Amino acid sequence: MRDKRLALIVLLASVALLLGGCGRGKKVVLEEARPGRDKELFEQGLTELSKNKFLVGRLLLQTLITTYPDSPYLPIAKLAIADSFYLEGTSEALAQAEVEYTDFANFFPTHPLADDALLQVALAKMRRIQPPDRDQKPTREAERRLLAVLQRYPNTDRKDEVQQWLKAVRDILAEHEMYVARHYMIRERPRGAKRRLMTIVERYPTYSKFDEALYRLGTVLFQEEEPEEAAKYFAWLVREFPHSEYRHRAAEMLERIGKPIPEVDPVEIARTDGLANKGLLNTMWGKMKTVLGIVDLDVPKEGVLLKRGETAEELIASATALLPTQTVITPQATTVIVGPTAPAGAGGAAQGRQELRIGVTAGSEASASDAKAKEKKDEKKKPERK
Q1: Helices 159-186 and 279-292 sit at what angle, rounded to 10 degrees?
Q2: How much is the pTM?
Q3: Residue 54 near residue 88 (C-beta atoms within 8 A)
Q4: Among 158, 120, 116, which Cα is nearest to 142's?
């Protein structure tokens, strides 16, 4: 009997603690949802992120997002969270940054920073690119993401930058194809080499070693007893790459096939002037980078909003400047907008009303309710008439 009573007391105490805990939790939620709290969370979160306290900053900003789904601070908060993963820089963090940036661009496609967010996805991919002799899946994904930026935002002010990155990424993809082609040629497998070299010629015309690709393709075709096709690529090399280390050998192959040696294109002479004697050096450096496992890409390590070395005040100021302007109805407005709100009915006059509106920034405390409260407060302060 005594044991049963003791068990009952423990059960009742547990229920009381559970109910007490629920009550306290409810009070916390109500306190979090008070007006102006989203701004506090926004500034506190950015302050922590500026100190590289990424976990704490994300928790504060995530609280803002879940508690205030209609807050004007929400888009910038999501972008700041994405930036925090990008700055953290680990493989797992970069993968999460890609998810966050993609979500931002999908949820806010017309936001002024949507194109920047999509570009950050490509940059995150590029930070994981491997040397040309290894798996190139991240490189191909980076190329796809860069093309997506140009497709979705053809008038982006970062178009030139995207195109430069696209050229660099494609150079790595072409170098991968060249690496495999050289391997096939060493092992005397011309068909495999031909397929890889054709890929370079057809897909990567800006490849830094395009002249080598032309020469090797012509050589493979000649070995495969396709002299007419081979001559096309040898002639291409002689005509458009006057300073190439392969030009003399290509001219010899044309003589061997019995084809005329074309004149050098004057445009190409002007374009490549000053690049003479750099071909061999570039080729040697390219091979050395492959051996050492070096990827020659200087990818930025900073986010769209978060910059290394930036103070909390600077970050909050720059982030606040990106907030949208809101239109709030208030009895103290200085701008009067008069106009119909509905089309005129048959045989009747247009229906209309007058509205008083004022534009305030997202961080302002001005609102219709605040204005009415202030008006009532002012009335209370007026002295009574005797």
Answers
A1: 80
A2: 0.70
A3: yes
A4: 120
Q: Note every long-range contact of 146-155, with CB atoms under 8 Å and residues 24 or more positions apart, other chains counting.
A: 146/119, 146/122, 148/118, 148/122, 149/115, 149/118, 149/119, 149/122, 152/105, 152/109, 152/115, 152/118, 153/114, 153/115, 153/118
The pLDDT tens digits for 43-81 are 999 999 999 999 999 999 999 999 999 999 999 999 999
CATH code of 24-128, in short, is 1.25.40.10
Q: pLDDT tens digit string along 134-188? A: 999 999 999 999 999 999 999 999 999 999 999 999 999 999 999 999 999 999 9
- The conformation of residue 174, written as its DSSP 8-state character, comes to H
Q: Which residues contact 302 (CB under 8 A, 6 or more apart)?
A: 86, 87, 308
170-293: CATH class: mainly alpha
| 278: its two tokens | 């750099």
Residue 258 CA to residue 60 CA, distance in Å, equals 75
> Hey, is 353 helix, strand or coil?
strand
Residue spans per domain, the chain: 24-128, 170-293
**Residue 178 CB: number of other CB atoms within 10 A?**
25
CB 295 within 8 A of CB 288: no
Question: What is the C-alpha separation between 201 and 94, in angstroms, rounded?
Answer: 33
What pLDDT shows up at residue 313?
95
